[in-house]
Design a protein that fits this description.
Radius of gyration: 21 Å
Strand order of the largest sheet: 1-5-10-9-6
Structural class: alpha+beta
Number of helices: 10
Oligomer: single chain
């Protein structure tokens, strides 16, 4: 067989995919740009990259046992798009460690050994059952990643899954940049306050917060709220984390479930989480067996678009469309137990916001009222 018609290497891995996305990183990526890549991918589906990272949107909300085959080819491999439902290309550089990392929100990254170099990468998926909640945590979709040395050839157009009876989801226009204003510094709080283009957090004074992606979310859409959380004492940050997790579970319809209530009690008391919450996969499996209504207490999904067709900045950030609220709420409990109070607060509140989705502004108003944060 001609060596050009077969891969140099092939590796099978399993990725716990959540929030309808996963990311490829060759060791040169910056977590702080993931949000920007997500916005770009939503504006021009189904993927976006910057040469160091490639973020891919998945039709399914989640697949905690997503099978991925990673292949390295000596040159552009034979085209077989007719065998796949979603296909997109990008560019990716793998650094000297020779490791390709596959990650998804709330799950640990999976690493694959790949020779260092600059690549064109093709990501293909199939086996889809629905856009959004697929009906289980293991819907069975499979993916293949093919890499070959970058040759400067223009990437092939993306191919989206045309779901019977639904079609292809529309792209989401990126938020329009606001006019820049000159920031003013509040030295007592250690923050900068200005228009939405200026960060509310002084990351130079708080370097430990640089890689807290959930903080970046709030820093973009609600900078005054982000600044207020950073300024809280650790005890209040911990209380906010616990409060947010409980609110997420309540809205998802989980708080009164018999096997869940001991975990919420342990969270309030600062005790270790009991089984099955002592293992994330075990908790997810138990949740899958319950077959709870996906809408929780939020009712059927409805868009928050106002008369002008615009969502609020927080809705743009956290409203992911029709989701299975119980699954979106679950990570909030684990995040609330993070040993770093400020990280726990931001992460738990972020998961709660995603659980509330189109109702997120109601949650954030309650947050301000509960913790004395002015509008």
């Amino acid at each position: 067989m001609d060596e050009r018609t077969r891969p140099v290497s092939e590796t099978q891995v399993t990725v716990a995919m959540d929030y309808g996305q996963f990311c490829l990183d060759g060791g040169l990526g910056d977590p702080d740009v993931e949000l920007a890549l997500l916005e770009r991918a939503q504006a021009d589906q189904p993927s976006a990259g910057n040469g160091a990272m490639l973020l891919v949107l998945c039709p399914h909300q989640n697949n905690f046992q997503m099978a991925v085959t990673v292949q390295v080819w000596p040159s552009r491999p034979p085209a077989d798009r007719d065998q796949w439902q979603q296909v997109s290309e990008g560019r990716l550089e793998v650094d000297g460690r020779g490791v390709l990392s596959l990650s998804s929100p709330t799950s640990d990254p999976v690493e694959v050994l790949v020779p260092a170099g600059r690549y064109t990468v093709e990501v293909s998926g199939r086996g889809f059952v629905n856009y959004g909640w697929p009906g289980s945590t293991t819907p069975g979709d499979v993916w293949r990643i093919r890499l070959w040395p970058y040759d400067g050839v223009t990437k092939s157009p993306a191919q989206m899954w045309d779901m019977p009876g639904f079609g292809v989801p529309e792209n989401t226009p990126p938020p329009a940049p606001a006019a820049a204003e000159e920031p003013s510094r509040d030295s007592a709080a250690g923050t900068r306050t200005a228009s939405s283009t200026a960060t509310a957090i002084d990351f130079e004074a708080h370097p430990e917060l640089q890689k807290v992606l959930a903080l970046r979310d709030f820093d973009d859409c609600a900078p005054d709220l982000a600044a207020a959380i950073v300024a809280m004492d650790p005890q209040t940050q911990r209380r906010l984390a616990q409060w947010a997790a409980v609110r997420a579970f309540e809205f998802a319809g989980l708080a009164d479930v018999a096997w869940v209530t001991p975990a919420l009690a342990a969270l309030r008391n600062g005790e270790p989480l009991p089984a099955p919450f002592d293992d994330r996969q075990a908790a997810s499996s138990r949740l899958a067996a319950e077959n709870l209504p996906p809408e929780g207490r939020g009712g059927p999904y409805r868009s928050t678009a106002g008369p002008g067709g615009e969502k609020s900045p927080t809705a743009k950030m956290f409203d992911h469309g029709p989701v299975h609220r119980p699954y979106y709420a679950m990570p909030a409990l684990f995040s609330a137990t993070d040993p770093r109070p400020v990280v726990a607060a931001f992460q738990a509140l972020s998961h709660a916001c995603a659980t509330y989705a189109e109702h997120v502004d109601t949650l954030l108003a309650a947050t301000r009222a509960e913790f004395g944060i002015p509008e």
